[in-house]
């Protein structure tokens, strides 16, 4: 490579990064403006997708970046939701600036214990240990009075954020709830994008590729994996807080292995290793679920939406092994190759 080519590459790299940085900003702007044109039902649907996108992004940090496949990630999601309700006052709104950090810290504290034990195992053993800890948390809320049993518990008044006696955010108002979720989604995406480009993120990528080699070069891989495990759990706890604030109720099903499996399917559907893939996968999964459970669209097949959704997921994995993001990248590569082939 000559000097002029090297200089051109150096100039093009920041431009490419800046070009890709515009897409998330544009997406956030579009999402923030959607309530102006969407009906109440579609607004709720976008809200649900955004919350699950945060949940999917949290698992992406583990599975896509660190190579840790967990079937117990819903435990942190459910703990964040339950703490939001349990710590909220009964007769007055709770403080958003207090409940959200507490939900995240509670999920992170449980992840610290779970991670310290489960990360000593690998492969299928790690999967089973995380599932076992998630089921333990599930039965704690399901079989005790503190969690309201199988019926769960209700949030009497949604939290609000006030400064100096002035209410800035009131989650009882639909628009405030919507924009709060979008801001949280944007913040989660930005945080993970920074982590991905940091030394910590590069270390996680190295651990996923070859942990033994990373350990030989002096990295404390256990500490890095534990940190990633706790950060992912805290982000899942934030998604749990938003779920509790949105629905006004929580139940043990939030901690079930079904939720862990669903969010794992989301990131596989979108494409592992990609932040955009996690968001796209969450959107595709929720939209497919809504489609297949709608009697107006699929008729008598609506009660069997789990079957049709499962078959669709099998087809997606079979024909798009790299997920939605990988398919788009392959299409662009083929297009560029075709254009180059047409040149004389």
TrEMBL record:
Its main location: membrane. GO terms for molecular function: branched-chain amino acid transmembrane transporter activity. One of its GO terms (cellular component) is plasma membrane. It comes from the Bacteria. It holds the Pfam family BPD_transp_2. The keyword Thylakoid does not apply. It is found in: Cell membrane. PANTHER family: ABC TRANSPORTER ATP-BINDING PROTEIN (PTHR30482:SF17), HIGH-AFFINITY BRANCHED-CHAIN AMINO ACID TRANSPORT SYSTEM PERMEASE (PTHR30482). This is Branched-chain amino acid ABC transporter permease. It comes from Massilia psychrophila.
